[in-house]
Specification:
Number of domains: 1
Shape: globular
Distance between the termini: 7 Å
Helix content: 25-40%
Largest sheet: 4 strands, antiparallel
Structural class: alpha+beta
Length: about 100
């Protein structure tokens, strides 16, 4: 399992992208950081996450975004975000 960043470019209906992420990653498998940035947790590749959300594919109405895999992390953020990252990484430690 891995954590992926999903970053909208700001073009298009970002709230539509948010609704799709919420529908695709139910419960605690997604974390919205701000208007343009989410983290999601999945077992698949970066390309597959991008396709799963629909960022690439036949539906051109989904706003553009970039998906990257988190290999390490560091910085300053609100405690709930650190707690989410820690829980997801520990959850995937048994994989």
């Amino acid at each position: 399992m891995a954590i992926f960043n999903v970053v909208a470019t700001g073009a298009g209906d970002v709230e539509r992208l948010n609704a799709i992420i919420d529908r695709t990653y139910i419960g605690s498998d997604s974390y919205r950081i701000n208007q343009y940035y989410w983290m999601v947790y999945d077992t698949i590749s970066t390309v597959e996450v991008t396709k799963k959300i629909g960022i690439v594919g036949p539906d051109k109405t989904i706003p553009p975004a970039v998906v990257t895999k988190v290999d390490s992390y560091y910085g300053r953020a609100p405690t709930p975000l650190w707690d989410w990252i820690k829980a997801k990484l520990e959850e995937g430690a048994d994989d």
